Amino acid sequence: MSxxxxxxxxxxxxxxxxxxxxxxxxxxxxxxxxxxTARVLSAAPWLPEETRRIAYLLEQQAPDGSWGEGPLPYRLxxxxxxxxxxxxxLRRGTASAEVTGRLTAAVNRGLDALRSLxxxxxxxxxxxxxxxxxxLVAKIxxxxxxxxxxxxxxxxxxxxxxxxxxFNASAPASVxxxxxxxxxLPVKFHHTFEGMESYxxxxxxxxxxxxxxxxxxxTAARAARFPATTAQAVDELTAVAQRYDGLFPEAAPFLVxxxxxxxxxxxxxxxxxxxxPTVRGWAEKIYDPQGVRGAPGLMTDADxxxxxxxxxxxxxxxxxxxxxxxxxxGSHYDCYIGEDTGSVTANAHALQALVSHLRRCPxxxxxxxxxxxxxxxxxxxxxxxxxxxxxxxxxxxxYATARSVTALAQYxxxxxxxxxxxxxxxxxxxxxxxxxWGVWGSTVEETAYAxxxxxxxxxxxxxxxxxxxxxxxxxxxxxxxxxxxxxxxHDKTLYAPTAxxxxxxxAARELLRAxxxxxxxxxxxxxxxx
Length: 530
Fold this sequence. Notes:
Number of strands: 4
Shape: globular
Strand order of the largest sheet: 1-2
Distance between the termini: 34 Å
Strand content: under 5%
Helix content: 55-70%
Radius of gyration: 24 Å
Number of helices: 19
Structural class: mainly alpha
Oligomer: single chain
């Protein structure tokens, strides 16, 4: 990665404009979340603009009765959230007759959708699903019992909703009991507090400056359960609602992840000189010797810390990887203290950060060289037999594979090179006929990742060349301003960080342009020599 190599004017202007836009946005470019908005609608009737949230809830229901994005298993949690919120409004009895009728129909269709889901998954590994799902099922059944008894929901009779297979009905209460004796709730549960607020005693109510765990849903749930926090919740939620037209994203503000990932993506294709001061300012502000957190109120984590170290290195700041030491477990990095499942992409980012630092500071080899070697071994050990990687923070294997390949290609060595070649072969084999890639369908985001996988291969083949030519044509056709990218990133539900995706696609297109220009120059030289 270089920040000084000359680049095409068009790319430089677009990349700089993107950096300026990100810098001027104090919230972050993510769409509203159906799940999160429905949680606020349910828990916070005292918050202005309830009518807007009800309209959004009704507008977003799919023809099959579900809510949310992605395949049906991903729709479990948002559909539970939508049904429960509609039931909450119905039980309040404040909606007009027309809206009540529409909400009743929405509940019935949503219940039908939930009852038609597979009884045992498999379910996606989204944040705290093991707590959020059974908690919502319990709330829905409680409201159904009271409303159906009163005859207020015609046609919604039938069996109570079961807790889907793979989830434990007692999980939320068990987590709450576990920390009663300690007297405090770990920070890792703040972001998903709404999943256990019914079981929390006053001694476990967490304090927060700003949104609890950066989550509107968690903040509204705490206020509903503990009214002493309502005044603060009104102020915090109103500020977010003003940015999102009365609706809510899953995390606010979404600045750290957005700025670090945008900077790293653009640096892959060379960071424009005009954008460098702004990006350097981001890195100076975000880097923290105590570890970096992705949003206010979240735990410090290895992923954001690694990216902060990497971006600082890329812009020439004299910061070292020492903050990553907080997360090292002997072979690789835990995302955060108390993590249940490891993250491939967090460790790929950590390896990139270590390699970048070692190139700038060879004297650090004694400290970080052995750690990088172990990390290379761990990453290659996570590669699937087909040649790809998967990760819990993204639905697409192309994201995890691109991250892993980039890190391993930069690290080098025979073992890493073999893994990169295997990943490139898998990528070529899975290209779609239109030149794109995608886990569920063609997307420009996943095509950008696939391009970077293939460009990382040390010895490109004719198959690589053809695949990249097809990809360049696809990206030229499919990429356009205002394109709404499908949600592929994991939080509580799927989300799409628009600026990050735009940076990835922009960088991929510039890399393809540079490849084509280099090929033309080489051909001209050969003709001249002849």
